[in-house]
């Protein structure tokens, strides 16, 4: 369900247990298979910093987004702030906050995702609406990829 421009909320059922879904959300080797083209992230713990690269790193059209882990409670919650500028600490006003909540659902997982921080950026309405629409479209594309990747990973394991 969409709220006002300012938060994106999605629920996705994933045919994989929460520990597998958490791994897919919080490790760079998996992030690069469903979301970005490349990812760098050390241990998934609060305060850990990383990058998501969309495109080929080093190319002029590549987009590098910074991220900072806010909460890591495996396999229940993984949250991070992202898109803050280099040299800035992630905070409300300069980044989005993405929270993934994982709820056991039979043999699978109910994944709840919320992204906030649009209004806090201080943009004029047209920019706010454009960025919000871009992220809505992005999550509608990437969350099914996340679910498919986690499901395939769970099926490949004994």
Can you give a write-up of this model?
24% of the residues are buried. The protein has 158 residues and is α+β, with helices and mostly antiparallel strands. The protein contains three helices and seven strands, in the order E-H-H-E-E-E-E-E-E-H. Helix 1 packs across helix 2 and helix 2 (28-34) crosses helix 3 (125-156). The model has no long low-confidence stretch (mean pLDDT 95). 30% of the residues lie in helices and 34% in strands. It has a single domain, classed as Alpha-D-Glucose-1,6-Bisphosphate, Chain A, domain 4. The protein starts with 6 loop residues before the first strand and ends with a helix. It has a seven-stranded antiparallel β-sheet. The longest helix is centred in the last third of the chain and has 32 residues, at 125-156. The chain is globular, with a radius of gyration of 15 Å. Belongs to the AHA1 family. Residues 15-149 form the Activator of Hsp90 ATPase homologue 1/2-like C-terminal domain. This is Activator of HSP90 ATPase.
Task: Describe the structure using short key phrases.
30% helix, Alpha-D-Glucose-1,6-Bisphosphate, Chain A, domain 4, 158 residues, 3 helices, 7-stranded antiparallel β-sheet, 7 strands, alpha+beta
């Amino acid at each position: 369900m969409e709220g006002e421009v300012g938060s994106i909320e999605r629920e996705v059922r994933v045919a994989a247990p929460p520990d597998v879904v958490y791994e897919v959300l919080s490790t760079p080797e998996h992030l690069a298979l469903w979301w970005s083209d490349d990812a760098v992230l050390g241990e998934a713990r609060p305060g850990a910093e990383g990058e998501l690269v969309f495109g080929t790193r080093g190319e002029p059209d590549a987009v590098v987004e910074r991220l900072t882990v806010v909460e890591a409670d495996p396999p229940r919650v993984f949250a991070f702030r992202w898109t803050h500028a280099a040299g800035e600490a992630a905070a409300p006003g300069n980044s989005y906050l993405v929270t993934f909540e994982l709820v056991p659902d039979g043999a699978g997982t109910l994944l709840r995702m919320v992204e906030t921080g649009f209004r806090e950026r201080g943009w004029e309405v047209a920019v706010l609406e454009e960025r919000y629409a871009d992220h809505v479209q992005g999550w509608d594309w990437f969350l099914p990829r996340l679910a498919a990747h986690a499901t395939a990973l769970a099926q490949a394991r004994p």
